[in-house]
Amino acid sequence: MNDFGQENYNWNQASLALSQHGKAYVLITIIGITGSTPRNSGTKMVVSESDIFDTIGGGHLEFKAIEFAKQLLASNKDCQQIEHFQLANQLGQCCGGTASVLFECFSANAIHIAVFGAGHVGQALIPILAGLPCHITWVDNRAEQFPDNTKHFTNVSQLVTDDPASEVALMPENTLYVVMTHNHQLDFEISHEALKREDFHYLGLIASDTKWRRFQQRYKHREVSPQLVQRMNCPIGLTQVSGKLPMEIAVSIAAAIIESYQPLLVGNEHARSAKNNGVAWKEIKQLLSMQNKAEETRKTKQPSKKRVCSEVKAMPSATAQEEGNSE
User: For the chain, what is the domain count?
Assistant: First the structure.
């Protein structure tokens, strides 16, 4: 069973689930073959840090492909690379053909959202966030609050715990925190733990004006830096949205989060453009040339066998010669 609790994910389902979870993976595609190979061109498989989905035919070819994919995963960078494998000479497979394989590495997603509270607003917010390129940890101390219709979201991890505030310490750097539990004291403890870390990217707190004033006083008594408190988003969401329905609040919060994480995406794009040049045309030309030579070699060998066969077929048998002589 894989990380998603499924046994029979194919490469397509796996790539979608891994993307939604923000996990790194390599999509492997056979893009060209000559001669006899285990699988045809277009066959795909996916390799993640802990799982393998589908197959490109097994054997030494697949072993070497997985080994190379693991090397790409270790770099955690978006990249594309083409490798050419000679099944007989390099890999010792009796097929004897060649396979050109495209490796597409997708790095882990850095966006992580922690939602504390599974009340009406949380239940409206999670389906919206689940459609974004991020991973979500949804925390509450009441198991019955998590609705059944949200369990199918592959990028949402539901966490039931008696001490939600202690989970803050386990969140990755640059987490976006949404604090809106059913308990004011719990909201304070969670937000205080996030402030103590100082490495949050976004910290939103659902609160009335009175609640917010009291919290600021309590932060001051706990000697929390005023600069850190100023980084908080309270009231949470967009100020332009004044609606109080759970869905209205949820949409407002989601919009604020999307606006907040854009710098993270821009940073990733800049890194990708600087470090990922893709596959050069020169490399593709060399690969095509190798394939063409291999194919020409294979074709020149086959006709010689056919000519021998045709000569044998055309040669009259001894019996036929004798019959011809007797005539």
Answer: 2
Give the β-pairing of 44-48 and 25-34: antiparallel
Q: What is the pLDDT of residues 212-240, one digit of tens each?
A: 999 999 999 999 999 999 999 999 999 88
What are 151-197's pLDDT values in tens digits?
Answer: 888 889 999 999 999 999 999 899 999 999 999 999 999 999 999 99
* One-letter amino acid of 2: N
How much is the pTM? Answer: 0.62
CA 57 to chain CA centroid, nearest Å: 23
- CA within 13 Å, CB half, 279: 14
C-alpha separations of 267 from 2, 59, 196, 199, 327 in Å: 31, 40, 25, 17, 93
User: Which amino acid type is present at position 87?
Assistant: L
Chain-centroid distance, C-alpha 77: 12
Give residue 295's region: left, alpha or beta (phi > 0; psi -120 to 50). Answer: alpha
**Which of these three, 260, 277, 307, is where a domain ends?**
260
Residue whose structure tokens are 């459609």? 131
- Quick one: 98 and 127 in the same domain? no
